[in-house]
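Lecture notes, unit on protein representations.

Consider one protein chain, 192 amino acids long.
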Amino acid sequence: GTPSRALTEINRRLLEQPGKYRRGALPLLIELARIHASMNQWKLAEKDLEEFLRVASQDPTALGHWLDAYLVLGMVREQRGDPEGAREAWRTGRTKLASEKLIWHDALVAVNGFMLQILCQDLDENQLESAARGVLGNKFELLAFFDAKTLFRKGATIMNRASHTPKVKDIGRKMILQSCSLREYVHFALQV
């Protein structure tokens, strides 16, 4: 489809009536922001995300989507030339992750939390291990063949350093804004 058709459809599903959101539809504000970002409408994208964060604070069912919103908000701010605002969004998301004790075994929370830690350049070996446990679940035992502490310590160091190289930054932007195909998304994840 086209961005304009997507905007129409999201607004139809998002709003019960003008100014009133449908129950459970708040995450569509994040998708609305992604569409505005794809159209280089950075101010509208930021407005969508700020609205999500404002309204979602009153809806406990939307909590798992907060990290996604902070990731996208940081990328939107960075794209419109506000790197400090981007870091602020990512740090706020990271703080939210810690303060709400979001469950790392939820794959979306684990991946988004992991990305926030990397963008803030403060991923440590314990956080990397928690994320790995969250993503791998009962398959975590596969790592028993490795020196896990060294693997996680070195992995965290490499990821913190690499996160701000132009290539990795571009990959992260495309993944967070979802401006790539699923094939590219999987390929990017393997590259990083």
